[in-house]
Amino acid sequence: MPATVPPSTAAPARHVYTFGFWLMxxxxxxxxxxxxxxxxxLPDYLTRLGGADYKGxxxxxxxxxxxxxxxxxxKLADTVGRIPVMVFGSLVCFxxxxxxxxxxxxAAFLGLRLLHGFSTGFKPTGTAAFIAxxxxxxxxxxxxxxxxxxxxxxxxxxxxxxxWLAERFSLDTMFYCSSGLALLSLAVQGTMTETLPPxxxxxxxxxxxxxxxxxxxxxxxxxxPAVATLLCLFPFGAVLTxxxxxxxxxxLIGEDKGLFYTCYTGASLVVxxxxxxxxxxxxxxxxLIGSSIIIVxxxxxxxxAHSGPVFLTGAVLFGLGTGLNSxxxxxxxxxxxxxxxxxxxxxxxxxxxxxxxGLGALLAGWVFANEPAHLPxxxxxxxxxxxxGLVYLLVWQKRQTA
Length: 402
Description:
Elements: H1 19-36, H2 42-48, H3 56-79, H4 82-99, H5 106-134, H6 140-168, H7 171-189, H8 223-249, H9 259-274, H10 278-282, H11 284-304, H12 308-336, H13 342-368, H14 375-401
Helix pairs in contact: 1-5, 1-6, 1-7, 3-4, 3-5, 3-8, 3-13, 4-5, 4-7, 5-13, 6-7, 6-9, 6-12, 8-12, 8-13, 8-14, 9-12, 11-12, 11-14, 12-13, 13-14
């Protein structure tokens, strides 16, 4: 399969987006809103528990278990089914949201974050495989973009809703609402029809959790998008770690604490709607190269931001870049995968994503060290990672055209 997708000359298929596709978008919206609504408040919550020095672990532990669970979720998606994998992920999100109010120590909080990561280790893997099953190649980039719109709406609304609930009611109310949204996502999944071919399906057994060979963990066909994902998603973990503190330094407090997330995800949503089919028409690599340049510019703006408007401008640019980048990486991964190993291919890409986000979060916490003067260094390190990804993409493109 070629590394890029040529422009399609066929007439677009009718009824490409089925009822099942829109149900999946709704489920994703609720799921992403559930755990993203916690992000603006968790650093302060951990600080009140006495864990100010462990802020980098809020994202890092979450992504650690998400990454470790990917080989299992990918294998199960290709054997047991897409929907059971998604249901398990939403169930974990529901349970963890419910138990946050009962974490009275730093260790209990970090342990719950570790468990919470299983939610994104399973749900998005099943979702991406499900979408790839029902959407034809020539509309795949657009479909991933529309799915991303649903996730972006959840990510945009979640932090605003979370901060509003915490400010007007209590943190416990916010946690319980997060749990309730995950339950709604779970209920929506119960109305969908399994897409894994019956010939591939097996009843769940514990032996399916045994990883007996490297090819059950890693799908070599998708090495290129996996490397690009790791390098280009590094900034996401770093940004999630330091943005609450940078917002406070620039005077964005209270209900304004979530403005960065709102601007970021709003821009991401718009670009996915407007440019959803860009990579279908012009190819995956050109879009990834352009979006990587935008992300680098955004990180430079964030590093130089000394006022709220400049800071939020960086958020918009970051949203535009990632709004083009993420669905294109997903589509490229599916393009290169074998249908019978689609779940594993998606899991491989997500492992790279979690490694990138986890490293970004850990290094950001270490470099930042609760010193506002260190914020430019965090964003500079992120920009270097994306520049490395940009070089990799350019080399890959040259190899493909040689």
